[in-house]
Structure formats: structure tokens, C-alpha cells
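Hi everyone,

Forwarding the result from last night's run.
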Amino acid sequence: MSQRILLLGVYGMEMVECGGALAINAANGGHSFASIMLARPEMQRDLHQAAEVLGIEQLFFNEFERGGVDLRPDYKLALCRVIRQTRPDIIITQDPQHSFEDLDPDRRPAMGLILEAIALAGRDYGLEAMPELQPHPVATLYYMSPSQPNCSVSLATVWQKKEQAMDCLSSQMTFSGQHFSERLSEQEQQALCPGFAELPSDYHKGREVQRAMDKALHLHTGLGSHSRFALAEPYRRQGLFELNELMV
């Protein structure tokens, strides 16, 4: 069934990490959107390319202050505006527990900002700043990469699209390649990616390690968890599942 789905991300790679769900929705005739807080110009370019692959029809870049994400009214209004413009049935965003434990900067305050904006978007907050947009409550919220998933999405039909979209993130993969070259021993590099040292660039090094990580994560959520799915994106739905009848 097609839906209106909005991803609220911090740095940008979240859009591709959730690319399976977003691409499936677009392929089913739905509308997929993404809003990113802190993407640098080169990442914005890469994300536009990835969005085309995944069928995401509109991207929003908030350009908040790095290291300064907080609950200031301007930031709340910016996210409320995106939610009211896109009017999603479903919002996907980072998992509160995972983001609290994550050592990436800004993720912890971003989580509070995101949840506050979702709540305010459905109320009469900020109407004078955007009189053309009506409040929009969002009933369904999914957390990506959760510490304790309670559902998953099969990637069988969109795995290649997700991989192709990750290929587009050249700035992130280059950064990752430099990071893994410094952080991992030669033995660890070789174990993750045979021939790591001979790869032609930091981009290729980062991409091949990311490929191994993605396959491991999605296999673990899929076959590794005795799922009927081979490769699966993990999510945690906020609140109870509301069913008219039991589902298989």
C-alpha cells in the first residue's frame, strides 16, 4: 500500500540506510521525502543523486549549526514546516536509545529536537510563521537502526537500488575510507575486505567496508534472525501495532 513517508535525518546517510523502505514506497506509488539537518554541500550533491535512485521526490536541507543543535524556536519551526508541507502518514527517524549511545556529535540533542517538532507539528505552534500550512499530526513513527527492532522490511526487490544509492555517497565513503585506514589494523582491514590496501582510493576503501557492514547488518536482521526474509532493514515502531486481525 502506498503511503506518504518522511525521513528526518541528521547527517544524510540515514536516507540510504532507510533506502529500502523509501524505495519500496515510491515503487508502490507512494510519496517518499527526506529532510536532513547537517549535510555539507558535497553531501547534499551526493544525496540528490541517491534520491533519484531511490525514488525520493523531494529533499529538504535545514543547514543547522554543527555542534549547536538544540531546541531553539527557529529549528523547531523549520522541522514543523517540513512536516506540514509533506504531510506524512509515517515518519522514520533515528532511534532514541541508539542515538543516545552513538558518539556522533549532535545526535543526542537532535533526537529531542525531532521528537519535539513532531509533537508541535500537529498542534497550533508557529501558525503565524507559516499561515499557509495547517497542523499535521503524525500517528505512526518508526525508528531506524534500533537497538531492539520489532519489525523489518524485506530488501529482496530493492537491494540493488539501495547499493547503487550508497555508491552515490562519495564524500561519506571517502571520509569512511580514511577513517578505516587509520583505525583498523592491516589484519582487520584484510578480514573485512580482502585486498583493502590495493584499492585505488579512499572512496573505494570506504565503500567496500560499508558494503561488508551493510550485508552483515541486513543478513543478521534477515536470515540470521530466523526471518523469512534473506536481507531485511530493521525498524522499531513506536507504540502498539493496531491490527484488525492477526497477521502472519
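The chain has ten helices and seven strands.

Cheers,
N.
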